[in-house]
């Protein structure tokens, strides 16, 4: 059965998960009438002008930049049908709800996975193209300034700036529908934090990976040959062992996940940053981490942070023996992050008795 889209839902803090901060929705808005609490006041005042044309909002706790405002009340009987079809329409899922395999039959989840595929294709192609350069041997700096006066220091900056500008725009574009994860790293992190269901995680990662592979075919055609490397996806294995690369990848992904959650998914930060600001802070995080890991270790040109991106780069060029670190690193970081959020949860659960 296709997931119901909720139009002008009562987007409020769920009664079954009480935020440590006061409720963000005024009591006057808590009624049977569905209200979008995050709209600017002038839009709320003008909503009567569009009685028969209203935006469709899919309730989803894992919307990046949404700070878990786009959810339904798990204790409200009116939402039982929606929650049966979409368990992650509200946070604090049980294991049975997380692993409800009926989600694989949801046409909407497949549609959202397709959108994640498109977002991943766009992101992988542009971010790879900006940092693509011909194969060359690793050389040591010859000046007193060291690496800070070389292209090794400045070249990754362009990739970081691309992340800063492109990532927020992609989140704005795709978040209203699919949640704007774009990367398997974010999807895995939301899964281990009990924010999204297992079927959604599998479909999203599959879509993002497919998008990365398609971008790789496009990148190969655009560049004209396979003799190139991509920033964030190349390790000189004669200088940097794979285990060292794994350590950097794990810690870089851990930083990205924690900061992305802190600004774009934590309901306690909604009033601090707002839905318009948090995607840009995710972009800033990507800039800092991707650039900051790119020049310190000779032979290592930056953390991947997105396994689908490196998959696309290798589809376009050739697969190295160390590609596994681009998957194991984010997976380990997502598990570690999930354990922390299990110890220090975002919500205090107070489910009503059935």
What does this structure look like?
It comes from Penicillium cataractarum. Its main location: membrane. It is found in: Membrane. Keywords: Membrane, Transmembrane, Transmembrane helix, Transport. This is Aquaporin. With 354 residues, the protein is mainly alpha-helical. The protein has two domains: 6-94, no CATH class; 104-343, Up-down Bundle (Glycerol uptake facilitator protein). Helix content is 49%, strand content 4%. The chain has eleven helices and six strands. It has helices at residues 41-46, 80-85, 95-98, 107-130, 151-174, 184-192, 198-223, 242-264, 270-292, 307-316, 325-343; strands spanning 6-7, 17-18, 56-57, 132-134, 228-230, 348-349. The protein has a two-stranded antiparallel ribbon with strand order 1-3. A two-stranded antiparallel sheet has the order 2-6. The chain has a two-stranded antiparallel sheet with strand order 4-5. α5 (151-174) runs antiparallel to α9 (270-292) and α6 (184-192) runs antiparallel to α7. Mean pLDDT is 82; it is low at 1-16 and 18-44.
CATH architecture of the largest domain: Up-down Bundle
What is CATH's topology name of the largest domain?
Glycerol uptake facilitator protein
Assign the structural class, choosing from mainly alpha, mainly beta, alpha/beta, alpha+beta, or little secondary structure.
Answer: mainly alpha
Rounded to the nearest angstrom, the radius of gyration is: 21 Å
What global shape is seen? elongated
Order of strands, widest sheet:
1-3
Strand tally: 6
Reading off the top of the CATH hierarchy, the class of the largest domain is best stated as Mainly Alpha
Order of SSEs, N→C?
A: EEHEHHHEHHHEHHHHE
Amount of beta strand: under 5%
Extract low-pLDDT stretches. Answer: 1-16, 18-44
Terminus-to-terminus distance = 24 Å
* Biggest beta sheet summary: 2 strands, antiparallel
Continuous helix count: 11
Transmembrane segments: 152-175, 201-219, 246-265, 272-294, 324-343
GO cellular component, one term: membrane
Family: Belongs to the MIP/aquaporin (TC 1.A.8) family.
GO molecular function: channel activity
């Amino acid at each position: 059965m296709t997931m119901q889209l909720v139009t002008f839902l009562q987007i409020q803090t769920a009664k079954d998960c009480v935020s440590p901060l006061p409720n963000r929705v005024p009591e006057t808005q808590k009624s049977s009438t569905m209200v979008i609490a995050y709209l600017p006041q002038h839009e709320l005042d003008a909503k009567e002008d569009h009685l028969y044309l209203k935006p469709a909002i899919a309730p989803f706790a894992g919307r990046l930049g949404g700070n878990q405002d786009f959810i339904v009340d798990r204790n409200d009987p009116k939402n039982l049908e929606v929650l049966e079809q979409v368990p992650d329409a509200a946070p604090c899922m049980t294991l049975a709800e997380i692993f409800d395999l009926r989600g694989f039959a949801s046409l909407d989840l497949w549609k959202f996975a397709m959108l994640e595929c498109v977002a991943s294709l766009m992101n992988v192609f542009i971010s790879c193209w900006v940092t693509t350069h011909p194969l060359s041997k690793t050389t040591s700096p010859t000046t007193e300034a060291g690496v800070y006066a070389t292209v090794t220091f400045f070249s990754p900056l362009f990739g970081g700036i691309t992340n800063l500008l492109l990532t927020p725009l992609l989140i704005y574009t795709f978040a209203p529908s699919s949640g704007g994860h774009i990367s398997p790293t974010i999807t895995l992190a939301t899964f281990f934090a009990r924010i999204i269901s297992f079927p959604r995680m599998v479909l999203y990662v599959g879509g993002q990976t497919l998008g990365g592979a398609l971008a790789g075919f496009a990148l190969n055609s655009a560049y004209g040959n396979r003799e190139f490397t991509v920033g964030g996806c190349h390790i000189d294995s004669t200088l940097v062992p794979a285990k060292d690369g794994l350590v950097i990848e794990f810690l870089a992904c851990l930083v990205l996940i924690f900061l992305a959650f802190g600004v774009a998914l934590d309901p306690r930060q909604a009033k601090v940053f707002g839905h318009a600001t948090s995607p840009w802070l995710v972009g800033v995080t990507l800039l800092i981490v991707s650039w900051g890991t790119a020049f310190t270790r000779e032979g290592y040109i930056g953390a991947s942070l997105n396994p689908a991106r490196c998959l696309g780069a290798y589809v376009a060029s050739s697969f190295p023996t160390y590609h596994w670190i681009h998957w194991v690193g984010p997976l380990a970081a997502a598990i570690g992050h999930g354990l922390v959020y299990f110890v220090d949860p975002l919500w205090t659960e107070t489910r009503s008795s059935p």
